[in-house]
């Protein structure tokens, strides 16, 4: 993502990238995958559980992003897939719902959990981060934002896993139905869901914390980039679960008036459009979320 910003490729059709930009981006993707592989191998060598967190959007390959923003008919680029060491050609596959940079074979080695939040809270929050870290011009790049302000990538990857992870047999020792899905409102308002999740993934519920001390200044200062500091600013200043971050009783029409005042009429209208367009995906995913007592 950082290289993409440096090359000013945000909101640009992948077909319009130069050969140098293609080469640099493909090499960076492969290098990052190699680093991930090293992390996995080192962690497993210590007999530990590997946890990796990433936004579905950042895992999505450029041709899929451009197709979503500009229309499939306006993109000639073939899907990108990183290479797994030792696998070539037909041994690496990509099925229809896999829009990530990762081949099916690699995705199938993971047990995924998806975290969702109401679009009327998630999208404006991300928009403010773009403004604060990249500037208003970047935030106003409609094609770039349309790729981000959506739950399309989360839903398609969730559906991919739902199709490719075998369902547990009734009465088996482990009846967990992957993929798991958490909603931010449940994390805020229902601690039992967090406890249940920790049990399912093999973590010790006794070590859960719902209150804590704010991060020390030294920790904040050592964060590598302004983006990291901005993205974690609420968390590092917090002292516990923040109940006011819930979407309970949120009214999109009321929020839309606030967005138009905060972001300007045109940008506020875009935000309202993005939020409303994402509600079917959010409701679809929310209906499948983990609940206390369920697996």
Textual characterization of the structure:
This protein is an all-alpha fold and 295 residues long. 53% of the residues lie in helices and 3% in strands. It has helices at residues 2-6, 19-45, 56-59, 62-70, 104-107, 119-134, 136-139, 142-148, 152-164, 184-189, 191-200, 217-221, 226-231, 233-237, 252-263, 265-286; strands at 113-116, 180-183. A two-stranded parallel sheet has the order 1-2. The radius of gyration is 20 Å and the shape is globular. The chain starts with a helix and ends in a 9-residue tail after the last helix. The relative contact order is 0.12.
Keywords, please?
about 300 residues; globular; mainly alpha; two-stranded parallel ribbon; 16 helices
Concise account of the structure shown:
The chain is mostly helical and 295 residues long. It is built from 16 helices and two strands.
Chart the SSEs and their pairings.
Blueprint: H1 2-6, H2 19-45, H3 56-59, H4 62-70, H5 104-107, E1 113-116, H6 119-134, H7 136-139, H8 142-148, H9 152-164, E2 180-183, H10 184-189, H11 191-200, H12 217-221, H13 226-231, H14 233-237, H15 252-263, H16 265-286
Parallel strand pairs: 1-2
Helix pairs in contact: 4-8, 6-16, 15-16
